[in-house]
Write a structure and sequence with these properties.
heterodimer; A: 5 helices; 80% helix; elongated; B: 130 residues; mainly alpha; 4 helices; 0% strand
Chain lengths: 128, 130
């Protein structure tokens, strides 16, 4: 029996589920709470835009509050999507190489989707 | 020999129950909504680009395949929304009595169709120029 000088925390850090602790769980829930409100809002926006022509639809998104909430919706939803898809891949894709490749692909796709659509909202808001 | 033994989680011996359905459908709708997010991104990029690009999005939305997808995404959002609230509620440690759990699952399932019908009633009564 060797004497154990390292604390249990020191041994657990970086191993198994202790790699990131509850961070994934917490962010998934916090984005979910945000999306309760933002999800209702996006449905309202979509219904508003139904009977609008291009100029009116653009003016609606260009309103500062709508632009801010749209950017919040995009960040929360792409982040939430990345977290959820990550778990689906962890559960069903068991080939190491394929799992790593698809995890990276999902992260890149979600980040690019968020960046591109946020830039679109900024262009709409600034009228460029 | 190992292959001959039944493997956990013995899916074939379970009869379908609402707890399994809500869990599986939550995943499926989550994946569907991730794809739907790309449509939101496409619509916003088109709105920033100009009237022609936006007209393409509107035409897709009015096409029959687009309409079917939009109805599917509406239901996916309604289900994921309601079931997500149920999950957040349960994360607080509430609603684990079997009767409550089953009832909450059915409320989510039926509620998702009610919400979808409400949204599409709004769509049909409002009509649309875009």
């Amino acid at each position: 029996m060797t004497r154990q000088f390292r604390t249990p925390m020191k041994i657990a850090n970086g191993l198994g589920s202790a790699r990131a602790g509850a961070h994934h769980f917490m962010v998934q829930r916090i984005t979910a709470v945000a999306l309760i409100a933002l999800g209702l809002w996006i449905v309202w926006i979509a219904l508003e835009m139904l009977h609008m022509d291009y100029a009116a639809a653009r003016a609606l998104i260009a309103k500062p509050w709508n632009a801010v909430l749209m950017i919040a919706f995009l960040i929360a939803s792409f982040w939430h999507a990345q977290l959820g898809l990550q778990v689906v891949i962890e559960d069903y894709v068991h080939a190491k190489g394929l799992e790593l490749a698809s995890q990276i692909a999902i992260k890149f796709a979600c980040f690019l989707g968020a960046a591109a659509s946020v830039l679109a909202v900024i262009r709409i808001a600034l009228g460029t | 020999m190992a292959a001959a033994r039944p493997l956990s989680p013995h899916l074939s011996v379970y009869r379908w129950q609402i707890q399994m359905v809500t869990s599986i459908v939550h995943r499926a709708t989550g994946i569907a909504l991730s794809v739907g997010l790309l449509l939101v991104a496409w619509a916003l990029i088109a709105l920033a680009s100009g009237p022609d690009a936006f007209a393409d999005v509107a035409a897709f939305g009015r096409s029959w395949i687009g309409t079917i997808l939009l109805i599917g995404w509406t239901w996916s959002l309604a289900f994921h929304f309601l079931n997500g609230i149920r999950h957040l509620w349960q994360d607080l440690g509430i609603g684990y009595a079997i009767g409550t759990f089953v009832r909450a699952g059915w409320i989510v399932m039926i509620g998702s169709f009610v919400l979808t019908a409400l949204v599409w009633a709004c769509v049909l009564t409002r009509g649309g120029a875009a």
